[in-house]
Preprotein translocase (Johnsonella ignava ATCC 51276), 67 residues
Amino acid sequence: MADKNKDQESKVSFTKGLKAEYKRIIWPDKDTLAKQAVAVTVVSLILGCIIALLDFGFKFGFGLIFK
């Protein structure tokens, strides 16, 4: 029975700590969020193009070598 109370206290303590941490979150405003979303999208597209070009180059290069 003591273990059950200890387990409940642990859950309550965890929930209180979680709520306290959730209140500390600083949410970005719409402008910041939009800028960050655009930056992530642009960087992802650029990296995708670089990887595609490298893939094409390796395929072409290995195709010439292993004919």
Observations:
- The CA atoms of residues 4 and 10 lie 10 Å apart.
- Residues 2-65 form one domain.
